[in-house]
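Crash report, auto-generated. Payload:
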Amino acid sequence: MSLFEPTSADFEPLPRQEKTEQITRPSLSYWQDAWVRLKKNTRAIISLGIIILLALFTLIGPLLWSVNPALQNLNQVSQAPSWAKSAVIIAPYQDWDGIRLEGYTSPNQIASAVPAPTGFAMADTPTTQRVRLIWDQTPGADGYNVYRNNRAPRDFNDLGLPLGSTYGNELSYEDRLSLEPRAYYYSLVPTDGYDEYEVYSQLILTPVLAITPDEAVERGLVTDPSEVNIGDDITIEFHPFGTDYLGRDMLARLMEGARVSLFIGIVAPFLFVLVGIIYGGFAGYFGGQLDGLLMRFAEFVVALPFLLFMILFKIAFGIGPGESGIMPMLLALILLSWPSTARLVRGQVLQIREEGYIEAARLLGAKDHYLILRHIIPNTMGVILVTLTFAVPSAIFTEAFLSFIGMGVAPPTPSWGSMCNEGVKTMLSHPHELIFPAVFISITVLAFNLLGDGLTEALDSKMRSRD
Amino acid sequence: MDTILSVKDLEVEFSTYGGTVKAVRGVSFDVTRGETLAIVGESGCGKSVTVQSLMGLIPMPPGRITNGTATLNGKSILNLPAAEANKFRGVEIGMIFQDPMSSLNPTMTIGDQIAETLKVHRGKSDREAFSMAVELLERTHIPEASKRAKQYPFEFSGGMLQRAMIAQSLACNPAILIADEPTTALDVTIQAQILELMLELQRTENMSIILITHDLAVVARMADRVAVMYAGQVIESGTVDDIFYRSSHPYTLGLKEAMPSNTHDRDKSLTPILGSPPDLFKPPTGCGYCARCPYAMSVCAEHLPPATRISESHEAKCWLHHATAPRIKELHQLDDQDAG
Amino acid sequence: MLAYTLKRLIAGVITVWFIATATFIAMHQVPGDPLMNDKAVSAEIRANLEAKYGLDKPVTEQYFIFLGNMLTGDFGISFTQQNRKVNDIIRDHFPVSATLGLLAIFFAATGGVLWGALTAVYRNRLPDIIIMFLVILGISVPSFVFAALGQLFLVNLNSLAGQSIIPVAGWGTFSHMLMPSMVLGLGTMALLTRLMRSSMLEIVNEDYIKTARAKGLSPTRIFFRHQLRNAILPVITVLGPQIAAITTGGFVVELVFAIPGLGRYFVQAVQQLDYTVIMGTTVFYGAFLVLMVIIVDILYGFIDPRVRLS
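Recovered output after restart:
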């Protein structure tokens, strides 16, 4: 630059530019701008997607998954989640005599040790109806114990579930104890009639899922036993989310429960926010003594211990026989939750009322209803939307909480909270009954919370000027 | 004259979502003992960033000092780690800010906040530091200082708070006081008192002051020397008389035109500077003032003007001072007088 | 400060009166017969019982008797457990709930401040991201799930150790209290962490932090003396309402961990429609919560000079 030496041509005056300022950014309305910024927030958009999926799950899910959520099946209590599977049609159960040795006599002396049994095998194809086991006689033994384990035994003390014992002349065993189509580790231990010898043989097998024609009718797969033949493959009903303690399909119940939980979770906030807007708007717009009185009352309602009064109001409104208890809960939620919105809206209205542009509009001759519709409502909508978004998870929580302690919706109506309540009792043995409804509650609450965060940021005018 | 602080070619930029803002683009100035240097310019010209980067107060990231040196009594003070910087912050350079209401910790008594500096830098005991804090408050003419020292910021008025801020910054007898728009947030009557106090303390403590302001009236009253900043650069510097009576940059002229004055002709209306400063996301290749300058020439848009020494104390960056440039009455009157 | 305290106390008494009235009205709306558990008894005994509970008098008179009893601190006799005074029930079971609740608040507050400060220091770095992820979980997972998981954890821990290190349920020793109070405080801790974080980040940008740096204070000193202290203030203001949330949230934890607290008793009383116990515990809880909020507010005044002195 220091090398640059201007010539006289460089000192020609520049023409004055008339337009000194240019608006480079396109002009966006309040909501367009908020939407643009919300779209940039990945977490909020994913949450919005989850909420839409949940809505589809609740509304369209029952059409696609038309299992009756109330149908109890005590044959399939607390089943773990499983995918679609086919079963083989087999003949109804017939007695099996097994193998008995003719003219067997017990050893007259108890042997100090015997070899491990040999020939431990299945008598025929194992099915979930029954597993038939046979083995060869073990010299010196006067009886056998049969064990079953779900995993490979570590050692002699880890053979699993003791199924039964046989006498020395019985060389077979039939297992009919709640069989599932999965790998089992069978162990055979010879005994002296009372005590076991510390040797065993092992057999790994997987029973075939099988049902009889009568069971197929019972399960509603066919209408008449004659429609199926022995040996046919048939697709049986399955439970992708398992079944509950009464054998009801969890997926269908989760969908039914979603209706209850989301209904309360979304309708209650809408209603109490509406009540709050009217109450708070009224107090804020008219102000003065009326405002003081109304707000004092709202403060009292805020001071009521929330959950205690939820329970009190719920029992006060009562549940008739056959009612689900959703309406009393809705009413109680509205009665106790409106003051926070009312305070917020009042504050907003009081603040906006003092703004310069309201004064300006008034000077230009704007009437009250024009001011309310054109200025006050649009300017409070952002805050109200955020409140609404955050009110949904707290309403869902309240419903879940009350249903969990048995004060919510009445059985048999499922809600996610009452499903958790039922699931927690079998938590140790069948965790899926607690996990699924709990996950649904958590994901819903999470999605609404993150969406609320995103909306707060998108609508915050302070943030607006930053980028 | 002995130079205490010397700043050379300071460049500071900030990374933001919209790109990199070059807030300070090669600023140089010296401060000598006992003098007041005023840095003047409109908001966003980089005057606050300049002094805050000297004090290590700009947040890094997004801020970044990309070039330049600053030496305080011969020691470099740029880009120091906190432990090193704290050897001169509050000790050799004190600083006060624009809004005294928010510049003091709301949950600590005024006395404690002043005493804190003494405890940290001078190793004083609690009691000793507190009684020194009371003395400092007395020196800044706060009535009932011993009672006031036990009060919290919210119990003080704005003017009183700025006095307390000054007392705090003077705790360790600094050689330089940086005052970043010290009177902008105050009432006009209070402004005068605070400025008076600063002048008084400057005399008694033999202290230098760097005064950041956009108010030319304050400059006229306080400054010995003035640096006029525009778009991240010092475009004119000189003694206060140089700047006011021998303005050599069209921007300085514009500022003067826009300032009300009781010596002015009453019928003459104020002339605002049209337009707004350039976007420092994309600093102009030529003179930053080109788009608003009434005397703009084709060279101005393309090339940065070099610094021209107008007198011993006076410098300006404008192509009009080039030998081949046309003569402008307002800018060259004195040259012409001298010549004639 | 004294006048402020007095004013708050008077407002508190009025609030408790409102709570008592609301309780009375709600309970008189409950469908069914308060003496339905005594259906088998003869008309004569029934008349005696009605006289004993004052049910033969008109509603307004019952209301004033109820208010009078509340004033003297007499909550009457339980409907289902004859001869057991409601006061005795509260005296037996409330200390358990209060211990649980206060311990939970302690966990929540210390944890919230600690984690919140930590996330602010490590803003947008790994510790912040991990903690904030856990916070989101803490806010989104219902307390009963935490309670169940906590219990599951203890079961596994004990079976792994082959002995009962920490009891899975029940009440008595400190080890009984540990898991329930942590579970109970978790949600609040998550909330407070979030609040503390945003409060810390807001204060970093305050002018007085810049002043403190210009004064040449060390970063540690600025963090503890100026940033932390001011950031805690908004956390304390929400502590009052959070105590209310935690004490009533205790119901679930008391149920899951089989803790003999007042919450579990209240749920039981509601299921049995034990009128006097329901009314007594509700009013008692309400009064307790109002008192807690007042105490927190006054405490706040001691920490924030702006409140104390105005």
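Post-recovery validation: The longest strand of chain B covers residues 3-16.
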